[in-house]
Design goal:
Elements: H1 2-38, H2 47-54, H3 56-89, E1 90-91, H4 95-101, H5 110-121, H6 126-133, H7 149-173, H8 177-185, H9 190-219, H10 222-227, H11 233-240, H12 249-274, E2 290-291, H13 301-322, H14 324-334, E3 335-337, E4 346-347, H15 350-354, H16 359-393, H17 398-407, H18 413-424, H19 436-461, H20 465-472, H21 477-505, H22 509-514, H23 523-531, H24 537-563
Parallel strand pairs: 1-2
Antiparallel strand pairs: 3-4
Length: 574
């Protein structure tokens, strides 16, 4: 009895440690921001918010951010939904590897891809020069829009549609085909069946994913920063950090953004969670797809090949457009001389060598490696603990740990980083002196859901009877976990660790804001710094971006090899 009580107390103590972590590195910075925004001079006041929204620049930035989020969500939805329906409805040659290639935009952050797109589509970029040299136009066209707005929309759409695609693919795959078949037997065509049957059933899952895409696009800092598009909320917050103590308006702006994102996320969770449909009938069977690789009864071979050709054409157009940021960054990294020409007049590999010899570039790689490995360690301890307590032990209040983990998705990186600067300045963790500790904590808070989801999936899919048998033979919980449970979930932990490591290496918002001295610059801060340096800065930044892309690609390939199709669960919205 005492032994059992001690074990139970140990679980609650560990849960307490996790709550302290969230309290110090998530809630305390938010509390500090709220206090400074609502109690700027002592008593409660809304004066800062009143002044904020009287400012025409703030109103314009807010409208631009909303427009950006809505456009990206709309375009992402069209792309992802059409692709999900194609892959659900048809089987064709190369379906598996084409599905994998559609995730290609995930391996390049829009922050890095913006460097390549600017070179290709600026007023005197490669595309305009190609058209002008061919006599197709006399004056260059501003493809990126006023101040780069359409460039931001384009990059964020390309980066986010794979996440929406993964969500919709999973939602559509869970549908019982009996409903679609019943509608078809009543004479409903494809579009009517989609509108009246399929869409209502997948709408909750779609809406949850769409809100994440909307918030991601609206709070992205890196892409507008590279395009130098200042009239959006994230850029305003970034510019206010330098005078955070002299101008309290930054607190009001951060609070507004935080409340807006939290409200959108909670509404999405409540709406999606409240829509419950019974998707599986008694005689549920796997969805019947149209196999275009085999002769189909009642369909001429010419029509079958024509349908296949249209599918390939559509997929290759999307893949070709998706590859443009990668291509632009690659060419930039190899350009020895490139000015007012369609392609570089000289090619070189020297910038890849300079990545490891340039003092700032090499020190930032070492810094990012240290930060990412430390973040993996923090995420492993906390993430495995949360997943174990919620999936295995299910202690009282375990749902709170899971809810807090998902809550981190509602806190944009720039909000958290702003809070760290405001609340920890003047303490032993002052980021102006040494940001390393806070960078690890910021990375850990924002990447923790990857580890928790991976670990939770591992615990849920492995039986606990072996642990119970081990305990019945007198083994301690720690010994049972190390000898029995850990080997069973090791692959899931490896995948979670890979995702945490890769995305921490290329974390943008926290790195740009918290790292203020060159000796503490991570990779992304160095890429931004070098991209604005005259001469070879852009090429060197592109070479560093390519190394980051290869790192993410290797992580995805290894993770996909371990988990296969289940890898998409890590990016699911719900």
């Amino acid at each position: 009895m005492e032994k059992s009580l001690f074990r139970g107390t140990g679980y609650y103590l560990f849960a307490g440690v996790i709550l302290v972590f969230f309290g110090v590195f998530l809630f305390y910075p938010i509390y500090y921001i709220l206090r400074e925004a609502f109690f700027p001079s002592g008593p409660f006041s809304l004066e800062l918010f009143h002044l904020l929204f009287r400012n025409p620049v703030t109103r314009e930035s807010l409208l631009n951010s909303l427009e950006l989020g809505i456009l990206v969500t709309f375009l992402t939805s069209i792309l992802a939904l059409s692709l999900a329906l194609i892959f659900h409805r048809y089987n064709f040659y190369g379906k598996a590897w084409l599905s994998g290639l559609l995730l290609m935009p995930l391996i390049i952050p829009p922050f890095v891809g913006a460097i390549g797109i600017k070179q290709l589509f600026s007023r005197f970029g490669s595309f305009n020069l190609l058209l002008m040299n061919g006599g197709l136009m006399s004056e260059p066209i501003d493809w990126l829009g006023s101040a780069g707005f359409w460039g931001v929309v384009f990059l964020e759409t390309l980066h986010l549609y794979p996440i929406m695609f993964l969500n919709l693919t999973a939602s559509i795959a869970n549908l019982d085909p009996v409903y679609d078949e019943a509608a078809q037997s009543l004479g409903a065509g494809f579009f009517r069946r989609f509108r009246t049957v399929t869409l209502p059933l997948v709408l909750p899952g779609y809406f949850a994913g769409a809100v994440l895409v909307f918030l991601w696009a609206m709070t992205d800092l890196g892409t507008p920063l590279i395009f130098n598009y200042p009239r959006v909320i994230p850029m305003m917050i970034f510019n206010m950090i330098t005078d955070i103590y002299a101008n309290p308006m930054g607190y009001a702006l951060v609070v507004f953004l935080l409340l807006f994102t939290a409200t959108c996320f909670l509404v999405a969770r409540r709406w999606a969670g409240g829509k419950s449909y019974e998707l599986y009938g008694k005689g549920y069977s796997a969805p019947r797809e149209i196999d275009l690789t085999q002769p189909i009864e009642g369909m001429p071979s010419s029509k079958r090949w024509l349908k296949t050709g249209w599918i390939y054409l559509y997929l290759f157009i999307i893949l070709g457009i998706s590859a443009l940021p990668h291509l632009g960054v690659l060419i930039n990294s190899l350009a020895g001389e490139w000015f007012m020409t369609v392609l570089p007049t000289q090619w070189t590999f020297k910038y890849y060598q300079e990545v490891f010899t340039h003092p700032l570039a090499f020190s930032s790689i070492k810094m990012s490696l240290f930060l990412s490995l430390a973040t993996v360690l923090v995420s492993l301890v906390l993430g495995v603990g949360i997943a174990y307590l919620t999936a295995r032990k299910k202690i009282k209040g375990a749902f709170l740990l899971d809810a807090l983990t998902m809550l981190t998705l509602t806190v944009p990186g720039l909000v958290l980083a702003f809070g760290y600067i405001a609340s920890f300045s003047g303490t032993i963790f002052d980021p102006r002196v040494n940001p390393v500790f806070l960078l690890v904590m910021a990375y850990g808070v924002r990447r923790l859901p990857y580890m928790v989801r991976s670990a939770h999936a591992g615990f849920s899919q492995s039986s606990k009877t072996l642990e119970e048998a081990s305990a019945s033979l007198g083994a301690s919980p720690a010994r049972s976990f190390i000898k029995i449970t850990l080997p069973l979930v090791l692959s899931h932990l490896l995948v979670g660790g890979l995702m945490v490591f890769a995305f921490s290496m290329l974390e943008v918002s926290d790195s740009l804001i918290l790292a203020m001295q060159e000796k503490y610059y991570p990779i992304t801060k160095t890429i931004w710094y070098l991209s604005g340096r005259p001469g070879d800065g852009l090429a060197l930044a592109s070479a560093m971006g390519m190394l980051g892309m290869f790192l993410l690609l290797a992580s995805f390939l290894l993770a996909g090899r371990i988990l296969g199709k289940k890898l998409g669960d890590i990016f699911r919205a719900g």
